[in-house]
Amino acid sequence: MLVRWRAVGPAGAQRGLLAAVAATLALLGLYRTPVGPRPLPSRPAPPVRGGHGLPHSQQLWNQCRNVLLMSQLQFPWERGDRHQRCKKAQWSVAEALEGVRKLQQSRPDRRAVRIVFIGDSRVRNLHSTLVKELGLRPDNASTVPMFYNEVFHPREQLRRAVPPQQRLPGLRAGCTEVDVMRPDGQDRVRCSLAAGAASLRSEFWWRPYLERRSAALLDSLIAECEAGRCPDLVVIDSGPWYARVARYSGDPTTERVFVFRAELAAAAGRLARLADATRLLWKLDEQYMPEVAYGRKMNVTGAMMVLSSVVHETAARIPRLSAWSSGLAETTHFYHQVCLPHGRQLRQFTYSPVRHECLDPMHVGHTVRWKMIQTLFNVLFFNVVAPTQGLCCGA
Question: Rounded to an integer, what is the distance from CA 101 to the centroid of its chain?
Fold first, then answer.
C-alpha cells in the first residue's frame, strides 16, 4: 500500500504523476472509488424451538422445521447425541399410507393430501419415487402429453415436433405437459407429471428456470390457496440449469449466477405469499462431486455453492420459506461411504452392483431419494403423529 508521496518537483508534475498512478491501479483492479459501508451479510435465522404465546400447531411446526436443517438434525451415522439436536422419523410404505389417511381424515372436507414439486430433474425424481413406492396412478396413462407449452419453438413448429415420439425420447406415462428444448442444438423433451390415489396426489412441474412460466405457476398456486384448495406441501428447486446449461452461445457461468439472483429476487414476493399459505420448502443443490462419476473435478461446484448461498439469503428474508439443507449431508455421506470406494468400478462397468445408486451426486439413486422422501413425510405428518421423544416432528 502506498502511504506517502514525497514532493520531488513542481505541483503540476505531482498531480500528473498521481493521476497516472490512479489510472494504472484502476486498470489493474486495485483502485476502488470511495463507497459507503457494506451491509452486513444476511444469514439464515436460527431454529425456533416452541415459542410461548404461539398457537400449538405453529409451535409444533417451528420444532419440526429442524428436520430440514443440516445444523439441527441428528444423523444416524453420528456417534453420541449432539446437544439439542433432534432425529428424523423413518416411515415404511404402510406407515406412510396410514399417515396420509390420518391427515385426510383430519379435514372437514376429506380432500386428498397434495404435494407439488416445482423445478428440474432432481425433484422430478422425488415425485417418481413417491409415485412408485406408494402406488399412485398417473393422470395420463399414455405417453401423449395433455397439452403443449411453447418454450424455444414457435407453437406450430412445436406441434409438428412432438407427435413423432421416436424422434424425441423423453415422453413418459403421466406426461401432462411437454417442453421441447434445444440447449445443445438437439431437441429434448421434458415432461410435467401428475399421479394420484384416493388419499394422495403428487404433481411435478418442469420449471428449471425462475422465468415467466414459473411466475405464472406460483400465481396459480396462490390463487388455489385463496380459494381453499391449497397444496399441503410445495417443494421447489432451481440452480443447476443456471450453473451448467448455457442459454446461448458464449453465455458465461458468472453471468448466469447473477441472472439467478435477479430472478429469485423478482420471485420473492410470490414465494412469500405462498409460504404464508402452506409449507414451502426450497431443496438446495447437492454438493456436486463430478470426480465420482467422471474422474475429474469441474468448476460447476463453486457456482452451485454460490447459488445455494443466494437461496439462504432469500430464505432469511422470507421467514416462512424453509431452506432444506439436511439432504446435502445425507447425499455427501452416502457418496463417501458407497460411491467413492467404488468409483473406478463405476467408471469401468455399466452394470456395477451400485451403478444405479450412484448415478451422479445431482440425481442420486433410489436409496438417497427415499431418504429425501422420508424427510417430506416428517414435514407432511408433523401434526398428525403421536409424540416420540427425540424426534423433530410429532404431535
Answer: 27
Q: Is 236 exposed, middle or buried (0-12, 13-18, 19+ CB in 10 A)?
A: buried
* pLDDT tens by residue, 147-204: 555 444 444 544 454 544 434 455 666 788 877 766 555 666 788 999 999 999 999 9
Cell numbers standing for residue 24: 494504472
Q: What one-character-per-residue DSSP string does 119-165 give?
A: ESHHHHHHHHHHHHHHTPEES--SSS-SEE--SSS-HHHHHHHSS-G
Which helix (H) or strand (E) covers residue 260, if one does?
helix 253-277
Question: Of 164, 175, 122, 74, whose CA–CA distance to 286 is shortest?
Answer: 122
CA nearest neighbour of 216 among 267, 157, 278:
267
State residue 290's pLDDT score.
73
pLDDT tens sequence across 58-105: 888 888 999 999 999 999 998 776 667 899 999 999 999 999 999 999
Q: Alpha carbon 40 to chain centroid distance?
A: 25
Residue 230: Cβ within 10 Å count: 20
